[in-house]
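protein-serine/threonine phosphatase
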Amino acid sequence: DLDETLVHSSFKPISNADFIVPVEIDGTIHQVYVLKRPHVDEFLQRMGQLFECVLFTASLAKYADPVADLLDRWGVFRARLFRESCVFHRGNYVKDLSRLGRELSKVIIVDNSPASYIFHPENAVPVQSWFDDMTDTELLDLIPFFEGLSREDDVYSMLHRLCNSNEASCQLHPPNSTLVCGLLCEYSEGKSFSAD
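Tokens:
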């Protein structure tokens, strides 16, 4: 996901914007001010070393593509899917992971919106929505979890084990990131991953 997961964007000026992207809407050029989530650079670089990464966003390509160009200086995103690739279902743009052409037992979606992954909740690693908290460490905190995940053969079994061993952390999108905390606790206690 892009918005509120990796970046926050606004049509209103943001004094400390990392990027300003011109976007044409109805014949008028608008400036979109984009803030990068803290630690997004480290997160993307590490994910690119571990996984085949695809940007899948419900945003329009005319906005998201130039933002991705500026955000992904390392070429981490091997493909980009935009709103046109989503399924409009019950008022929401849903990211149908089956469209990736990959074995779903090896696919994870990182997203702040549970509506985006309602077709594949068992593949989701939810994150807190991010707007402008520059002390946020969620992406940095997720790196060890994904390092462990990269050694797993099947994401379903790993996520299922984590949820069953810590049911308090198995909510789809908790307001205080207990899922992420639970996953990281399980990882740090050595319950979920084999040491290679």
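The two ends are 30 Å apart (CA to CA).
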